[in-house]
């Protein structure tokens, strides 16, 4: 159920440099969202700057009627958000957008995150864990310093295989290389394999190239700048690969797409 309400900040704490966890109270959102969906959060400033609400993926929900986001400070809006104290009320609108499509049939699921792209994938892992579905979770970072210690904060158990570009933690290399080993070493090839991913666009583009080679279905959650978050302004579009539409609205048709729906060639 989509709501527009003032939600209380239950927690807003620093996880690593520049990255925060915020927990908000909203039993409507925590009880109804689908993994991959997002909320628009108002910044509660005096005056009109910044005016627009900012989009954030729902990272996980808890039984006490709260949900959490994990966010990085990149500009004025996220800086203001990081200064929100416990007890403050923020305007939230959601859950919005299209979430991940989880097939009923048994498949081998591989979840692949790059950097902050881990946020929407945590809610997917939470639902798969709740439904006792098995999956592999791969997380790529540039260095060990960028690693977000999600295992310590989640209300469910999550085992993550980490890769770092400089080898300072986990396997050295790009997380997309780990997918290739998962694809090559599929234990139960008859079951079929599905990839779910979120991260920087160049990483998603590379993953799309890999899944095309291995003929493997893949869903990606993408980001773009958003104004309305509700399909009205066309400010968030991505080039479409095929079909009637030339563009896809990330807030309405996404943020989760099948990787073959996006025209990766047009994305630099
Ligand atoms: C569906 C969706 C889910 C998101 N989920 C998360 C999340 O879980 N955690 C998180 O940290 N961030 C998430 N983001 C990105 C987040 O919304 C932006 O970082 C935030 O709006 C920036 O606001 P700001 O005022 O701090 O920065 P601004 O001052 O608006 O911008 C600062 C810089 O960041 C760039 N930027 C702003 N927004 C985006 C964007 N959406 N994509 C790429 N670059 C951008 C700008 O071009 C600029 O260079 C999500 C975005 C979308 C569309
Ligand atoms: S943000 Fe307005 S159409 Fe997507």
CATH architecture of the largest domain: 3-Layer(aba) Sandwich
Distance between the termini: 36 Å
**Total beta-strand segments:** 16
Q: Could you give a short account of the major beta sheet?
A: 7 strands, antiparallel
The run of helices and strands is: EEHEEEEHEEHEEEHEHEEEE
Mean pLDDT: 93
Strand content: 25-35%
The CATH topology of the largest domain, please? Rossmann fold
Total helical segments: 5
Query: pLDDT below 50 for ≥5 consecutive residues: which ranges?
Result: none
The CATH superfamily title of the largest domain: Nucleotide-binding domain of ferredoxin-NADP reductase (FNR) module
Radius of gyration: 18 Å
The small-molecule ligands in this entry are: flavin-adenine dinucleotide, FE2/S2 (inorganic) cluster
Secondary-structure-derived class = alpha/beta
Number of domains: 2
| The first-level CATH class name of the largest domain | Alpha Beta
Helix content class: 10-25%
Basic shape: globular
Instruction: State the strand order across the main sheet.
Output: 4-3-7-1-2-6-5
């Amino acid at each position: 159920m989509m709501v527009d309400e003032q939600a209380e900040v239950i927690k807003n704490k620093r996880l690593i440099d520049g990255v925060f966890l915020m927990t908000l109270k909203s039993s409507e959102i925590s009880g109804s969202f689908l993994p991959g969906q997002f909320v628009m959060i108002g910044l509660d400033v005096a005056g009109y700057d910044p005016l627009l609400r900012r989009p954030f993926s729902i990272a996980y929900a808890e039984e006490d009627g709260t949900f959490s986001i994990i966010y990085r400070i990149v500009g004025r809006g996220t800086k203001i958000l990081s200064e929100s104290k416990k007890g403050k009320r923020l305007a939230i609108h959601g859950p919005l957008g299209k979430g991940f499509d989880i097939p009923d049939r048994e498949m081998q699921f591989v979840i692949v995150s790059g950097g902050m792209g881990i946020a929407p994938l945590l809610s997917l892992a939470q639902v798969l864990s709740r439904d006792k579905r098995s999956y592999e979770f791969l997380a790529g970072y540039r260095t060990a310093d960028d690693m977000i210690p999600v295992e310590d904060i989640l209300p469910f158990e999550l085992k993550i295989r980490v890769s770092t570009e400089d080898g300072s933690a986990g396997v050295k290399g790009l997380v997309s290389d780990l997918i290739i080993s998962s694809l090559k070493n599929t234990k139960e090839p008859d079951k079929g394999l599905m990839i779910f991913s979120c991260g920087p666009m160049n990483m998603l583009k590379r993953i799309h190239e890999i899944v095309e080679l291995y003929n493997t279905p893949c869903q990606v959650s993408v980001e773009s700048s958003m104004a309305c978050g509700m399909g009205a302004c066309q400010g968030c579009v991505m080039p479409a690969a095929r079909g009637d539409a030339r563009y896809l609205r990330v807030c309405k048709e996404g943020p989760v797409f099948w990787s073959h729906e996006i025209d990766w060639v047009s994305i630099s």
